[in-house]
Amino acid sequence: MTGDDRRDFLAEVAWLHHEFGFTQEAIARRFDVSRSSISRALADAERQGIVQVMVTVPMPREARLAADLMRRLSAPATVGLRVSGEPSHLAAARAAARVMERIGDGGSVTIALSWGRTLAAAAGLVRPRATTAVLVVDAIGHPGASALTPTVDVTRALGAGLGANVVHLPSPAFVTSGESLAVLLATEPVHQALATARAADVTFVSVGVAGAGSLLLGEGLIAPEAMAELLAAGAAGEVMGRWIDSSGVGLPVPGLEEVGLTLDDLRASRRVIAVAGGAEKAPAMLAALRGHIITELVVDDGLAEALLAADPLDPLPPMPNGDAR
To answer: By residue range, what is the domain housing residue 32?
Structure first.
């Protein structure tokens, strides 16, 4: 049986069982195969996305935490519950995948994405579907670091899951001078990719910690001396590689220029969703909210509890366009 024949068989079995109500035994008789063959076919149909099983009501604890975050932070929140001792980032990724699916199912939409293992895991967990007029674009260049899953891998995975076209940003994530940055930004492919990312309907960003736990520090993308200066200046974390203090004000790193959406670009964006797992990300997430850098968050239950236990947010001023969050 060829690959296409197998897929046709799986589709027919799925229709007979899920749509017409045939039992597995009845389908087995129809095709003159064993019942176990039909059971395997139904499992394969689900794995390949031919059949999608969706629980439409969230777990009660997830729903309560999300509602509490909404009241506390005045921002839409989605929470993923850790199960069986799984890492925090996978719980956040699973919740983010469901958000990505709903966005993709909405029709014509442009989605910009950052780097990171959590976003990469989320994109990989998106259940394959046929969407209409979805475009996926890099929001930052290639970091060139093993611990930071490149943006191109994130956008490629989401594009495959959503059946979308993908626009890549052909650039490193960092350069060492303003002159080099200006040259890159003037090139047509980089200029066009960033223009597409700025106009995106929704942008997914990563959030990182300041200090010894920083992946940028661990990968040598920022020097220990620069990190010490950032901490002395009050760094609370980074959003997509851009450092911010506890109020969400940007903190420059001398000799390090980023090729990607700026903090002001994010503030001007329609919808910016921060995806993160782990209680240690709470200071950075709160800072991004205070600075109007993000509008929405997707977190695991550990980070949700840390955000709820943190000191209350200072009253948030209206968004730059005059609308309250």
So the answer is: 3-47
- Same structural domain, 100 and 31: no
- Cα separations (Å) of 181 from 141, 151, 261? 12, 19, 13
Indicate the number of domains in the chain: 2
- The per-residue pLDDT for range 234-281, each reduced to its tens digit, is 999 999 999 999 999 999 998 889 999 999 999 999 999 999 999 999
DSSP state of 320: T
DSSP 201-240: SEEEEEEE-SSTT-HHHHTTSS-HHHHHHHHHTTEEEEET
Q: How sure is the predictor about 56, in pLDDT bands with cuts at 50, 70 and 90?
A: confident
| Class of residue 77 by CB neighbours under 10 A (exposed 0-12, middle 13-18, buried 19+) | buried
* Shared-domain flag, residues 30 and 76: no
User: pTM of the entire structure?
Assistant: 0.81
Q: Identify whether the C-beta of residue 39 lies closer than 8 Å to the C-beta of residue 24.
A: yes
Please say whether the beta carbons of 174 and 195 come within 8 A: no
Please provide the size of the chain in residues. Answer: 325
**What is the residue-averaged pLDDT of the chain?**
91
Concatenating the DSSP letter of every residue in 159-181 gives HHHHT-EEE---SBSEESSHHHH
pLDDT (average), residues 210-214: 95
Q: For residue 313, give the nearest of 322, 208, 294 by alpha carbon.
A: 294
Query: Has residue 319 got a pLDDT over 50?
Result: no
